[in-house]
Amino acid sequence: MTKLQNKVVWITGASSGIGEALAYAMAKEGARLILSARRKEELERVKGNCIAAAQANVHILPLDLTQTETLRLSTEAAIQIFGHVDILVNNGGISQRSFAKDTVLDVDRRIMEVNYFGAIALTKNILSHFLKRKSGHLVTVSSVTGKFGTPYRSGYAASKHALHGFFDSLRAELWKDAGDAITVTMICPGFIHTPITLAAVTGDGSPLGKMDDAQYKGKPADWCAEKIISAIKKKKNEVYIGGIETLGVKFKRFFPNWFANYIRKAKVR
Question: Which end is more exposed in the chain, N or C (fewer Cβ atoms within 10 Å of the end residue's Cβ)?
Answer without folding.
Answer: N
